[in-house]
Amino acid sequence: MVDYDVIVAGAGVSGATAAAMAGKLGKRVLLIDRNTAQEPGKKTVWGWVCGDAVAKSHIIYVQKNLGNTFSDQVLGLKVDGVIALSPDLGYKLPFDGEGYSLERPLFGKALFDEAIKNGAEFKGKFSIEGPIIENNVVKGVFGKNEKGEEEKIRGKITIDALGIASLLRRKLPENQYIDKEIDYEDLELTGRFIYKTEEPFDDHKYYDKRNALIHLNQQMAPGGYGWVFPKTDGRVNVGLGVQHRSLEIRNKKFGATDNLKSLIEKYIKWNPIFKKYHLDNSSKNGEGYWSVSVRRQMEGMVYPGYIGAGDSMASANPLSAGGIGPALIGGILAGKAASTAVESSDVSLEGLWDYNVDYVKQYGKSMAGMEVFRIFLQSMNNQDIDYGMKSFITYEEAVEITYGRIPELSLTSKVAKLVRGVGALRTFKDLVWTTQKMKELNGIYANYPNSPKEFPQFKKTVVSMIDGAKARMPSGPV
Ligand SMILES: Cc1cc2nc3c(=O)[nH]c(=O)nc-3n(C[C@H](O)[C@H](O)[C@H](O)COP(=O)(O)OP(=O)(O)OC[C@H]3O[C@@H](n4cnc5c(N)ncnc54)[C@H](O)[C@@H]3O)c2cc1C
Fold first, then answer.
1. What is the pTM of this model?
2. Whose CA is nearest to atom 31 of ligand 1?
3. Which among 29, 243, 340, 378 is placed 20 to 30 Å from 401, CA to CA?
4. Tens-digit pLDDT profile for residues 145-186
5. How many C-alpha atoms does 324 have within 13 Å on its Cβ side?
6. CA 141 to CA 128: how far, in whole Å?
């Protein structure tokens, strides 16, 4: 017996959005989470651990599809964009355009309320343990209800929105479409705090109330970056992400024993804005640690009876680690794809395949290229990043790269003659190689397979190109 048309596992950003979309399309939807209805979208016991920054274009996309509006209170502080600063703070690179520094718990609640308004039922305090699988088709989920009893819930199709550590993805049968595990090197270990600052501050290298700032610095945040994102009422979302391998290399070189926590403490000490501040724990969300993936989204995101959306599919942007936008897009498209599959009674791989195609078209097409650029960035030390940001690419070219578009490096011939030093020459050559690979990968994704038949060759090519980038440009923060 089937209990529901669509089961949505996880009521975070992607799950609540998918449930709202499938509900709006008239399907019988069950949204499941281990949280209660009072705390939707809370990722872990630490709270809604996130930098809270999202591009305006993603919010518009959701509103257009769901027909809802988010209130100003939910959207929080409007910002002009995200600005990345070079390690010596001498060079600024803007990306992502206008956006919001969200009130994350309220945003999660707004999406959740939209799902309920559109008819989704909610089952809280339910811990999902894995997928029900029959004849290699996902038929629902099993787990423990709030009384601690094992329960099976069946649906025609299951959307996996359980986030990065998804137990559904990891317990799928062996398959070539979706990787069960995310490579440790492709994870950023992150921590963040919400602080209230008590002194007005106006040095845009450290804090900018109109922009979300990112500090690239391989000493302070090896293989990642630190961030200072402004919020309303003098609050700041401050955090830091590191790549485990880069941290190990850096510690070894300097005989240091730093870990994520000590690096965050040093980063906060370094930034003069935090001379006078205190933790803002008003929504029990002041301090938290979690991981975010910075690889391309899974090459395929469907399996018979199953669609993945958001962090469960590693969909965060490999360069910025921004995952809210892709989780919203994945949620909308997964809700639509599930609804279509129910209507056509076809939950086969072939039947669900268009979800992959649509997602790649809407968002995923340049993510593999961005991953190569991330690998390139992680291979450079601070001096190389400073020199490279200033000397190798024009401002416009750099902006193009952050959008996943590949510029013809106009300075290439001029710069090649000017490059000074072995490190700079290597960086320059790697940059030229990287932009070439980005172009190739964008071309490969522009021809994303229209059916599962052509998928194995596609995946093989993509994986071998990414492996090639990792082999050529290993992490080298110092
Ligand atoms: C420190 C940090 C900073 C970040 N900053 C930004 C940023 O500034 N901008 C940005 O765009 N992105 C940012 N991201 C990424 C962004 O937060 C995620 O991409 C986004 O939350 C993904 O949403 P999701 O719905 O896919 O997954 P999640 O938000 O993780 O939601 C998963 C849901 O599933 C539920 N769940 C999980 N397992 C189970 C289970 N077994 N049983 C029942 N329920 C379960 C959870 O309770 C949760 O509600 C950041 C991430 C981190 C860690």
1. 0.96
2. 12
3. 243
4. 999 999 999 999 999 999 999 999 999 999 999 999 999 999
5. 27
6. 7
